[in-house]
Amino acid sequence: MKTWVLLAMALSISMQSYADAPLSGTGAAPTTVSSSSADTSGRFGVGLMVGEPTGLSLKYFFNSTFAIDGGLGWAFHDGTDFQIQSDVLWHKFDLVTLSQGQLPFYIGVGARVKFQENAEDRIGLRVPVGVSYIFDDLPLDVFFEVAPILDFTPSTRGGFSAAIGARWWF
User: Fold this and answer.
1) CA-based angle 34:39:40, to the nearest 5?
2) H or E segment at 5?
3) pLDDT tens digits, residue range 10-25?
4) How far is it between the farthest Cα atoms of the chain?
């Protein structure tokens, strides 16, 4: 439990410097930062993901490159267990140019807790790497990510997760 409190405090401190950055955009995930506009449309996305875990996906952009995401769902590897995860993500929007939509790549670092029915709960670090397609005409993105995981409690163990999903942006 102490580990989660420390991770939450560190994440909160790191996010405070980005929280006041205004965004501009219309419905989709933000791609530009504007100092003259306080438009917050497109900052928050809610959707579903399928994979490990399968469940709810949430994402919030602080500015055009920095976001936090989270997931709640069931992990089916080694039994059916409930999992909570959250990551800090950095996006790169200009690696691939498309005629329609955008294709940002991202990398991050975060944590997960896997509540196991028949064993001790697992707490670990995640390093997600992914890509999302953001539609021009819809406040929607689809994404795919993989994340190496290093569990450090109750014992040290490596693994990975992968998910595909979609989010609607508000």
Assistant:
1) 115
2) helix 2-16
3) 444 444 444 444 444 4
4) 54
